[in-house]
Fold Putative phage tail component domain protein.
Amino acid sequence: MRKVIGIGETVLDIIFKDSQPIGAFPGGSTFNGLISLGRSGVHATFISETGNDRVGKMITTFLEDNGVDASHVNVFPESKSPISLAFLNEDNDAEYLFYKDHPHDQLDFTLPDIQPNDIVIFGSYYAVNPVIRPQVVSLLEHAKSHGAIIYYDVNFRPAHQRDVLRITPNLLENLEFADIVRGSHEDFQTLYKMDDAAKIYQAEISFYCKHFICTQGSAQVRLFAENRFEKAYDALASTPVSTIGAGDNFNAGFIFGLIKYGITRSMLEQGLSETQWDKLLDCALRFAAESCKSINNYVSTDFGNKMKAEIQTS
């Protein structure tokens, strides 16, 4: 089976409702998606670092327990694992505060085995952080040269708005590396002060990457591709318990679809049919909706087992 390799931050998400903590779960944008993929029977590897503390041990154990290879997660002796506080509002959307041991930002790993049509996912501030940029680029170059599909989740939080000018060269390079770019309307409002998906694609994305997905919370998902292909997809109706993992699991579902339906890099380059895009977006929306049914950041194990059965019979 094809593999999925993700690189990103690890955090402990502490979730608050009505100013009271209601749960604590290992998380991180790429991390959340890989947990869902591991639960769904996909061979997944995570590249990251943690501190040498109870939180770090919790994170690596959780990865392994959910079928994700944690051998590329480095534990640094003098670092503390980062913490994220997520405050749910009346609509169960989250606002965040992050606490990180920034003086110890570092990343040291050996490049994983990557074969043609494996999938590499990266994103968030981790993907543009100047401190670890050389290591991130080395993975992306390795992936590109070995024929992998590269999926970029922009996921740029308002907390980093003051850094936009400083990280723009890295952002543009990421767009060039990517075969698929996904971002939310909030990301692009922060980066470009724009929230019209079509204008964002034409002005900021299409020159670098032809495949663009813009998610808009509970509103329609917008897809853009080569040859002026464009389509809108309705989000699946639900009453969310938490939307914290929705975008991360949208990514996981899309990647699950790439594997389930045998979509290769050459097929992406040649252009997918509307039916193929429909199947991929259906998987993405199903995973996103499932993750909103609990305060966890990932799909449930029951849902994962159903997906595992689907991928085994495809």
DSSP finds ten helices and 13 strands in the chain. Residues 49 and 74 are 4 Å apart (CA to CA).
